[in-house]
Amino acid sequence: MKRLGSWLNRGILILLIVGLLGVPLVGAEGEEEKSITFVRPLMGVAGFDPATSGDSESGHLMAMVYDTLTTVDREGKVIPNLAKGWAISPDFKEYTLYLQEGVKFHDGTPFTADAVKYSFDRMLMVGRTAYGYYSNYATEDTIKVIGEYTVKFTFKEPWTLFLVDLITDAYKIVNPAYVKAHAAADDPWALKWLHDHECGTGPFELVEWIHGDRILFKEFDEYWLEESKPKVDKVIFKLVTDPSTATMMLERGDVDIVEKLTMDQFIDLRGKPGINVVNFPIPKITYLTMDVTQSPFDNPKVRQAIAYAINYEDSIEYAEMGFAKELRGLSPKGMLSYNLDLFRYRQDLDKARELLKEAGYPDGFTTQVTFSLERRATFEDMATLIKSYLAEIGIKVELKKVAFSTQLEMQERGGYGLSLMVWTAVFPDPEDILGWLADGLRPSGGWNGSHWVDDKVVDALSKARNITDQEERQRHYQMIDKMIVDEATYIPLYTLGHPFAMRDWIEGFYYDSFTHSHFWQTNTTKGD
């Protein structure tokens, strides 16, 4: 399901103002147009089709041009979007959604209930999105149009999290007429066309995508949501291969916002005149996983010994340059399952050695730590620290750097030693973390590398997914997180922020992992 690629090795996209070439942007009235610039990588898999979504690169692109039926505010609360309201049956099997009227797709086609049905049917039939739970609950007959602006979903079993799940990228609404116009006999859902093109209802329109060169967006003049109408006219992405070049361009004032630099570069930019570095808190956790069904990690005392061997404060300081915070369990702050009173391992080498001796490994053992720089550029530093920590209790570690696809394959097979992982929740509910990492019966494609199956946990997850009482759900999820900590089935390391560097003329920029970068709320006072 998740998601990121190598920021350092595969290039960085920079939004470049046309003015860099010495040509000002001029609007129809003769006024100079506003542009903002933005720096982030764009991997080859990125595209504009919600039906094949599954990576943050695509999510950033689609957020510019599409809308979802619901969204979340900055507190993580679900709020209306293209759906202005809803009615839910007492058993949570039926949802009736009432849609916004007067909304247009970018080609002027009216948005109606037919577009919602088509988008969901298409997504279900394509079957390639890595986001959302719709296919677990829906059938081909789930969604019905019962009015021009009303749709009804009927699920085969209760689904209490449907409105939350609707915020994810898989459920962005496409224009049926546009898709059908570009379908082909060998491509009935126009997947090839929708990879590079769009026709959504979002705040920006895609103007052009020249692969390897640039992506150009412009403001959609007829955007329906008044408070989210863009404050700038154009956004241009331009490929630059070197993050150091991006840093220099920010310092010169050629670009406005930079993302995905190295930690050293962010540190260096702090305090420089005219530049702000902002670290947005997001539900992104880093942890060690191991196959708890295989020796020696099938012994809880071995796992606890490893947890006691790690110096968490130094890891945050030296591997992440301070751009991280301590993590209790697998639930970051802001999640319903977060528990400030949960036990937190601290480095205690005597305790770690004692536990290893009790487990039958007084002289330690040999293992490996697997990691992928595609997941996080700092993981080589973190793996090196872990190797040094474990050496102090007699555990000899070989570092194994692999492609992320290889890492997932290793985790799915099991018996791989230790593995460094990062997980970002794509909607604000514990189900999107614990529902994947604690459910050993759920196919995960290697994401759940623990292979931990506990009947009590499986039962608690089943109950938590299908009850509406939030306090009761919280009790179930917090119990699961406590079991993870007590038995050290995972070893939580730290929770990550998401840093950006930007010029001080940028106003209103905001980022979260659910709705991505909010260009539509961002303004620039450069030149004012």
| Ends apart, CA distance between termini | 44 Å
Q: What's the architecture of the largest domain in CATH terms?
A: Roll
Q: What structural class do the secondary elements suggest? A: alpha+beta
Helix fraction, binned, reads 25-40%
**Count of DSSP-assigned helices:** 16
Strand content: 15-25%
Describe the structure.
The protein is of the alpha+beta class and 528 residues long. The protein folds into three domains: 1-65 and 202-274 and 504-528, D-Maltodextrin-Binding Protein, domain 2; 67-181, Dipeptide-binding Protein, domain 1 (Alpha-Beta Complex); 282-498, Dipeptide-binding Protein, Domain 3 (Dipeptide-binding Protein, domain 3). Helix content is 27%, strand content 23%. It has 16 helices and 23 strands. The protein has helices at residues 56-65, 113-126, 134-137, 162-165, 176-181, 191-196, 243-252, 263-269, 300-309, 312-319, 349-358, 379-391, 404-413, 434-437, 455-465, 470-487, and strands spanning 12-14, 35-36, 38-40, 70-72, 78-80, 83-88, 94-99, 143-147, 150-154, 204-210, 214-219, 234-240, 257-259, 275-290, 324-326, 366-371, 396-401, 418-424, 490-503, 506-507, 511-512, 516-517, 523-524. Strands 1, 2, 3, 10, 11, 12, 13, 14, 15, 16, 17, 18 and 19 form a 13-stranded mixed sheet that branches. Strands 6-7-9-8 form a four-stranded antiparallel sheet, with helices on one face. A two-stranded antiparallel ribbon has the order 4-5. Strand 16 (366-371), helix 12 and strand 17 form a beta-alpha-beta unit. It is globular, with a radius of gyration of 24 Å. 48% of the residues are buried.
